[in-house]
Prior knowledge:
Radius of gyration: 19 Å
GO cellular component, one term: cytosol
Distance between the termini: 29 Å
InterPro entries: Glc/Gal-6P_isomerase, Glucosamine6P_isomerase, Glucosamine6P_isomerase_CS, NagB/RpiA_transferase-like
EC number: 3.5.99.6
Number of strands: 10
Order of helices and strands: EHEHEEHEHEEHEHEHEHH
Bound molecules: 2-amino-2-deoxy-6-O-phosphono-alpha-D-glucopyranose
CATH class of the largest domain: Alpha Beta
Coiled coil: 104-131
Pfam family, one: Glucosamine_iso
Strand order of the largest sheet: 1-10-9-6-2-3-5
Helix content: 25-40%
CATH topology of the largest domain: Rossmann fold
Largest sheet: 7 strands, parallel
Amino acid sequence: MRLVIRNKADTxxxxxxxxxxxxxxxxxxxAERPFVIGLPTGSSPIGVYKRLVQFCASGSxxxxxxxxxxxxxxxxxxxxxPESYHSFMWNHLxxxxxxxxENVNILNGNAEDLEAECDKYEAKIKSYGGxxxxxxxxxxxxxxxxxxxxxxxxxxxxxxxLAYETILANARFFGGDVTKVPMLALTVGVGTVMDAREVxxxxxxxxxxxxxxxxxxxxxxxxxxxxxxQTHSRSLVVCDDDATLELHVKTVRYFKSIEQVQDEMIGRExxxxxGQVAGQLKYSSVSSGN
Length: 290
Ligand code: GLP
């Protein structure tokens, strides 16, 4: 797992958006081989979406061959409700970029048979050969998507009862009225997210500090479901300084020192997207101290 620390939410958004752009560009998607991305809602990804929209507007990025799968959706909220995740995604991202509407996948929280809807979603992800990159945010209780504490780390897309803490946290979007927040949601499972070939998680703000510490400094634990990323072979957490408040100083220094070695000793130009050393020759010269 890589941890990248930036000073504030804005620079976190810059990092993540630039990273996603580089991943899509390097993948060079086509209609036959689209880039399949998993996407979250919430305030954490808004800055990333703004930048992706700017990249598309300037012509440096295209979503024409990108297929998206959203993480979750409330149950029973009309699709065109301003707080539905459908509305969120179209307002913040999809209507501003060149993604094909038929390539957008969002769970239908008003489906007659919710279980069948979830099974269909899993099958559709499979039909694309899985998700290349799953972007996520987390709740203050360490949940990813709507996988509340105690969710199985093998869980798949399903109907989920929301934790009271999540209902409280999301009441801000419903005029502060907890009674207006739906109590059920459809969500991809922890297992669905972990099946992606890469998982990238944005964690910003002091209210996520305990969750970040639980997620990366303690063991894999279903009470902090995002901690499952410790077992993923390609995972990246990008956080701001505020979110590191509960980490050990040693942890922060450790991850910062890795970036320092990459910048000052190896050189960014010698690194691949995942932080791997790209050129064998240059690697030899570094390791032999030349
Ligand atoms: C909701 C969503 C999560 C999101 C979380 C955090 O619970 N289901 O996917 O990560 O909110 O939201 P925010 O980024 O606004 O803190």
